[in-house]
Write the structure tokens for this entry.
Amino acid sequence: MFMETPDTLMYVAGGALLLGWLVAKISGALANRIQARKRDPRDDRIRNLEAELRIAQTDAEKAKERVEEQKVSIDEERERSTRRDAIISEQQEKINALRRDLKDSVKKTRELRHELSNRAEESVRSEVKLREVETELSVAQASTDLIATGVLDYSVAPDPEDEFEEVDTKPSKVIKAAT
């Protein structure tokens, strides 16, 4: 009678399944406690090694990131160094060009100074000659004035040919003095 009804069978089967599941859970929990007490030391070592492996992997990833950052930093520094070298070489070229220009300017300045000193010397010589000519002119003017006034008379003076003979005896000195 008890088994005759299909509803009851279903309830009995469901209760048996539930009871079996409950007994398995309780026995599993008790077994785990007993196994925890009897744990193999190699399992602990394996767990420690796995933990160390995970830590080492995270450290390796961090180190890789730092290496990448350092590579980027090194590349930036190389680029900056290359630009700086280019700037320095440009400035060195400018300095060399300025030095060449300065040498040329100094050379031209020396040439101009030399030319200026030559011209100054020439100017001084021409002034001296001008003064000599002015002196000769003033002497000639004075002698003309004396002749005009009658103070100077050449009729009493010695013969002009005698003077030329005396002058001719020393021609090199006269020519040198005139030049």
Q: What stands out?
A: Confidence is low (pLDDT under 50) at residues 166-179. The helical segments are 6-37, 41-149, 160-168, 171-178.
